Amino acid sequence: MKALIAKRIDSGTPDTTEIRDLARAAGYDVVGEITQSRTADAALQLGEGKAHELAAEAEATDAKTVIFDNRLGPYQMYNLGKLLPEGVEILDRFTLILEIFGQRAQTRKAQLQVELAELRYELPRAEAKTSLAKRDEHPGFMGLGEYDESREQDIKAQISRIRDELEQIEQTEQHRRERRRASGFDLVALAGYTNAGKSTLLRQLADDLDVDENEELHPDLDSTAESQDRLFTTLGTTTRRAALEPRDVLVTDTVGFISDLPHWLVESFKSTLDSVYRADLVLLVVDVSEPIDEIHEKLVTCHDTLYERNEAPIVTVLNKIDAVSEAELEEKAAALSALAPNPVTVSAREGTNVDELLERIDRELPDWERERLVLPMTDDTMSLVSWIHDNANVEDVTYGDEDVLLSFEARPMVISQARSRASELEAASA
């Protein structure tokens, strides 16, 4: 479908690279663009002359969609709709992102989050339509769509219903995270902007042979992650077991950040970000091949988002080092040192320095503790011995006539559980 790009900035030269990428990701064929450097026009976003130029360009190129790389208010959308040729759809940056999200949503949770974001976006527009109707404005509402008197209340009711369902899903996922942690798993989350290479890195970190046997431990999450050079290939979360012995580590890939997201959209995907907030370690993945100013701005945004609720240590991973020279990499690492101290540099595509990253993950995760237990020889003892083998690194097992001596190292939570179960065995044998 043919689309025109429109963008206004207060000053300087408008850059349409990202909005063009977003449009292509949604399946549009970009046939032209109209840009302007000036303060926003309250009625049209663009100046009146430029808005008429946009309408003429839409007619000349037979574009059926105009995509603004700006946030359009309800009345701006209405006024632009009156200027553009009949049948031309208007999208702003956020409706375009929602369209992409809707195309990629596979799981029930992702679909609900997209629906919630769409409803939050639609609510002020429904309110604007009500206002226009009361003023007896044009019945077609142009860029705002058709008017339905009850729509505003319907939206509010749907938002409430979806919030409740998402809360139930999040409670279920939180219980699963707690079970994984109790089973001896360390939880590592990948965070960062879309297209930074998180999914590709996940594939490098994953121990593919062990994915299936861990399926029951995280049945809500897919065992595969796409690795493609396109935006938003990961909309939900994808978890795989990492190749990190003797630890049991689960790495989760999450939806990517994108610049200039409004609060209502971030809030709609809050439950996806909970995978990051509740992790033991966060890997903040950065595309080091991008311009330094852009990397800096993205790191600031990521830190603002993560530090709001995240308590886990954050390790910055400078990815795509295969796309930059050593000198450029050193220069960028030095310039970013305040935001990304002691980063790990990798090429997820080439597999460069992945072993170094695994070592860093091992160092940053909570330390394991050593324990030595003497277990009475009872009918249930071997079940506990087997459980410790599954959830810890067993260094020695000595079987006596009346007891079993185990020496092992594990997460503190696993040691606590092992002690509790050993006490129960002791009490039962007394």
What keyword list fits this structure?
45% helix; metal-binding; GTPase activity; elongated; alpha/beta; 13 strands; magnesium
3D architecture notes:
This protein has 430 residues and is an alpha/beta fold. It has 4 domains: 101 residues, Rossmann fold; 64 residues; 166 residues, 3-Layer(aba) Sandwich (Rossmann fold); 61 residues, Ribosomal Protein S8, Chain: A, domain 1 (2-Layer Sandwich). It is built from 14 helices and 13 strands. The strands form 3 sheets. It has a 6-stranded mixed beta sheet with strand order 6-7-5-8-9-10, sandwiched between helices. It is elongated, with a radius of gyration of 27 Å. About 6% of the residues have low confidence.
